[in-house]
Amino acid sequence: MALHLRGTVLPSGIPRDLWILGDRITFDRPSAEADTVADGGYLLPGLVDVHTHPGSPSEDEPAFDPDVFVEQIAAHRDAGTTALRFPGLLGEIPDGLRDAADAPRMITAGRWLAWAGLSKSADFHTVTDDLVTAAVAEAKAHDGWCKLMGDWDFEAAPVPYDILRAVTDAVHAAGGRVAAHCQSAQGVLNAARAGVDSIEHGMGMPEECVELMAAHGAVYVPTLTAFARSAPRIKDNPRGRLWHAGHRIMIQRVREAHDAGVTVLAGTDSTPFGNVATEVEHLIAAGLPADVAVGAASWAAREFLGLPGLVEGGLADVTVYDVDPRREPGVLRHPRRIVLRGRVVR
Ligand SMILES: [Zn+2]
């Protein structure tokens, strides 16, 4: 049976009736009988977390457990998150889950790739001295994305620009996209100059990166939630003061990036899963207009990932809220209705 929903469709803000047939949305009343599953409220194409790493039993223990992955994906789904991007995953998406009827849509960049010449790296990184070959292979093996460590420590030397540029050009030539972890001023600058497709974190970002990202069409994923959680634990010593300075700068760049025409998107990076509503609040606190911040965790993120939203023929993911999340972003924690892949989840 078809599903029918009526409400104010975002981002247009137009009250409409929409129907779901299979995994598609239509605004044309179908001849088949339809079950009305929402009448009133605000309709979004679901939430999106573009920076999440499910699958590890604990953050201190970077191992991959498929059962934990399934649990954490379910937490995302039950929060109304209908699409996810994994910019670094320690294992493969368990068999059958990618197309499961109740699984959010998933895009993975495969492993975290760290260049062997990088000053520091972590145990969970895949270290390679041929970053070009490895990055192209990851992008081809997964969903067109690879994940590079542009740096790993905000005080240590990052991957040089020439290498990042060669990798980015090769991945683009192969039809892929590059997500770059950067948390040092020079690391962000190298990645922004190299033309990567997404800058993740961007701690200490030099001012000129905003224009570079705009020129290259790169998106900015600051993952403010993760940094806000770490901040109280960072000590007030010289290294800690540098960390806090880099943190303040990244918050400032969120609004500047938006003003320069850069798309800012919402990612949580850390636990808990299903928490992208918190990132929306951080983005608003950083100065993003509320409608842009909600879009960063919904329609704008879907567009970036190539997933159509609430348009004729769009994919059948809908979440419904009692009040306008652009006015009360906190309501994003309380979806009244979740439809995923054309089926009612809640
Ligand atoms: Zn991350």
Tell me the number of strands: 16
Number of separate helices: 10
Q: Percentage of helical residues?
A: 25-40%
Distance between the termini: 17 Å
CATH topology of the largest domain: TIM Barrel
Architecture overview:
This protein is of the alpha/beta class and 346 residues long. The chain has two domains: 2-45 and 308-344, Urease, subunit C, domain 1, CATH 2.30.40.10; 47-305, TIM Barrel (Alpha-Beta Barrel), CATH 3.20.20.140. It has ten helices and 16 strands. α3 (161-173) packs parallel to α4, α4 (185-194) runs parallel beside α5 and α8 packs antiparallel against α9 (290-296). The chain is 32% helix and 23% strand. The strands form three sheets. The protein has a seven-stranded mixed sheet with strand order 3-2-1-4-14-15-16, with no helix packed on it. The chain has a six-stranded parallel sheet with strand order 9-8-10-11-12-13. It has a three-stranded parallel sheet with strand order 5-6-7. The longest helix is centred in the C-terminal third of the chain and has 22 residues, at 238-259. Bound molecules: zinc ion. Residues 51, 53, 87-88, 269 line the site of zinc ion.
